[in-house]
Write a structure and sequence with these properties.
This protein is an all-alpha fold. Helix content is 79%, strand content 0%. The N terminus is likely disordered.
């Protein structure tokens, strides 16, 4: 059971094959489109390393079949989540417009903190949980496709990809903080 949680990013990455493959084919592996799910990125890295992982054609086909089934199950849920998010954002904007300047500042700060913690609005949680359950089922099926050695190699590929993504996320956060400071200083000059 411990293995399932350690290798979850790997298997999630493997399941994204068709989503990434639909963006652009090629011998080097698929590229990503704006519509590709976030978990497609590690799979693109794995496909680039398919020779190193020694994935057989049959393994690739089986993983892609699992991924297609997952995509079919989760597509309507993603659409539902997108609609819920749009409604949530519209509702929050309308609420914020009715607040005083001080209340607006406090509310926006709280909403930013919630988003930074990754908290979902309560109405979106059941949909996300259904998507996660679908993914867990697909991951269990995908586990049966790879050998133990392939799992170890793939984990190293995913870990390297994750480290790069973490580095990029930190850079984005720094840029956002700096932009916020510049905007704050600009507002201060405008007010004075």
């Amino acid at each position: 059971m411990k293995w399932t949680f350690r290798c979850a990013p790997l298997l999630l990455a493997l399941l994204a094959a068709p989503a990434a493959a639909g963006a652009q084919g090629g011998a080097a592996g698929p590229a990503l489109s704006r519509e590709a799910p976030a978990h497609a990125v590690p799979f693109a890295a794995l496909l680039r390393h398919r020779e190193e992982l020694q994935l057989s054609r049959e393994q690739v086909e089986r993983l892609q079949a699992v991924a297609r089934a997952l995509e079919e199950r989760n597509r309507p849920l993603r659409q539902q989540l997108r609609r819920q998010r749009e409604a949530y954002v519209a509702q929050r904007r309308a609420q914020v417009r009715r607040l005083s300047a001080e209340q607006r500042r406090d509310t926006l700060r709280r909403l930013r903190e919630d988003r930074a913690r990754g908290e979902l609005p309560p109405e979106m949680r059941p949909v996300v949980e259904r998507m996660r359950a679908n993914t867990r089922r697909a991951m269990a099926e995908a586990q049966r496709v790879l050998s133990e050695e392939q799992k170890r190699r793939a984990w190293a590929v995913v870990r390297a990809h994750r480290e790069e993504e973490d580095r990029r996320a930190l850079l984005r956060q720094r840029e956002q903080r700096e932009r916020g400071r510049r905007e704050g200083r600009a507002r201060g000059r405008d007010d004075g």
